[in-house]
Design brief:
68% helix, alpha+beta, Jelly Rolls, 10 strands, four-stranded antiparallel β-sheet, single chain, disordered N terminus
């Protein structure tokens, strides 16, 4: 769906466009929340957070080891990792860097086998995450265990390469930021905030690019990543502020205090990531979500049909043939106003009016239309539902399937009784 923009502010072109936009947004958000609950998003995030926690340190150390031994000096690599950790989660960066520095001082014990074990420790997190995304996107695909592990390993290697590039960018940024801080101290804070948002946005974009199992519109991917990135940045700011105000938070956990904080941060981050995936799914089927209301709530009011559904409305003059018997049908028609006459082999067999629909049998059976439908004595307005949207509605709403099957059975019964009486 595209919205016409005008003016320097890029405002929506009319009140109807704004109403359409906000109506669609509310449906998408509501469906995303419901789907998140159906897919047990909070539970999945909790399970994945343990994998992510044990993958965090190995991931950073693996990159630091490779960069420090084959690209730049160890100190430069450590500074780059520290800058990246600070932008991602500043309250936890010191604890992370302490662990990495500890491992880095004992590089002599790290051989090929040890590094491979570090790499393998990251795979369970990727496997769990990809499984969660397969459930969210309802792909229905089943892949072999061996293929799944190959995909997991390739995803981990892609993530490692990407993080290595990010660390290189952080090294360059740190040098530039030092110059800005000396020459324009006022801009230093704003620049750091912008850099943090850009980093989080890029991370989320690449993250979704690696784990999303289906093809997604670039606009949907960018919009979802921007929303998720903004939420993560706000949470990072809130957590930093909270820990500054209450530095003794988690004292009851003793030496495990920092573990609790890291787990909480990872858990909340995964909740945002998984909810963002739900939004992506809802955006991809937003038209079907809107049209579903016709079968659950009945025909819309005149005001609603003029805004929410106006993109799907088609008007027919009195006497127009809407559906021709024998032709292939690829749409369902839901009558908003007026009435239509149903003819079979030139003989009238019934009428339909506001709230009725036709064309579903042709789409369900993938067969030619069984009757001709003609607009009545007054113009007819009908909402046209495409084959794709109709399939989505039926696939995800068993009650609607039951309703449509019942209506089809009643029509067939009425037609049969009329034929036998005639």
């Amino acid at each position: 769906m595209r919205y016409r923009l005008h003016g320097p502010g890029g405002r929506l072109s009319s009140a109807k466009d704004r109403a359409d936009f906000f109506s669609t947004a509310s449906v998408v958000i509501r469906e995303s929340i419901l789907s998140f609950r159906r897919n047990r998003g909070f539970e999945v995030a909790g399970a994945l957070s343990s994998y992510a926690f044990f993958s965090c340190i190995p991931l950073f150390f693996f990159i630091t080891y490779l960069l420090g031994n084959y690209v730049v000096s160890s100190n430069v690599a450590l500074r780059g990792v520290e800058s990246l950790a600070t932008h991602m989660f500043p309250p936890l960066s010191k604890a992370i860097m302490d662990e990495i520095a500890f491992l880095n001082r004992r590089q002599e014990v790290w051989g090929l086998v040890s590094l491979l074990m570090l790499l393998v420790s990251i795979i369970p997190f990727m496997d769990g995450l990809r499984s969660a995304f397969f459930e969210i996107f309802e792909t229905g695909r089943r892949i072999s265990f061996l293929r799944a592990q190959v995909l997991n390993l390739s995803a981990v290697l892609t993530a490692l390469c990407f993080f290595a590039l990010l660390i290189a960018a952080e090294i360059v940024y740190a040098a530039l930021a030092a110059g800005i801080s000396r020459q324009a101290p006022v801009l230093a804070g704003a620049t750091d905030l912008a850099a943090s948002f850009a980093l989080v946005l890029i991370l989320v974009l690449v993250f979704y690019g690696i784990v999303v199992p289906v093809k997604i519109s670039r606009m949907h991917l960018l919009a979802t990543s921007a929303a998720a990135g903004a939420l993560l940045l706000c949470f990072k700011i809130f957590l930093s502020w909270f820990l500054v105000l209450d530095p003794e938070y988690g004292l009851a956990m003793g030496s495990l205090k920092i573990v609790g904080v890291i787990m909480f941060w990872v858990y909340c981050s995964l909740v945002v990531i998984l909810f963002g995936a739900e939004i992506m799914v809802s955006l991809s089927k937003r038209d079907a979500l809107l049209l579903k209301k016709l079968f659950t709530d009945g025909p819309p009011s005149l005001g609603e049909s003029g805004s929410t559904f106006r993109r799907f409305v088609r008007t027919y003059a009195a006497g127009d043939v809407i559906v021709q018997e024998g032709e292939r049908g690829n749409s369902l028609f839901y009558i908003l106003s007026g009435s239509v006459t149903i003819e079979k082999k030139g003989r009238p067999i019934g009428t339909m009016q506001r709230g009725d629909y036709f064309g579903e049998m042709s789409m369900l059976l993938d067969a030619p239309n069984t009757a001709t439908v003609i607009a009545g004595m007054t113009p007819v307005q009908a909402i046209v539902i495409s084959h794709r949207n109709f399939e989505i509605i039926l696939r995800e709403n068993s009650r609607i399937v039951t309703t449509i099957l019942r209506d089809m059975a009643l029509r067939l019964k009425a037609t049969s009784e009329k034929a036998s009486s005639g």
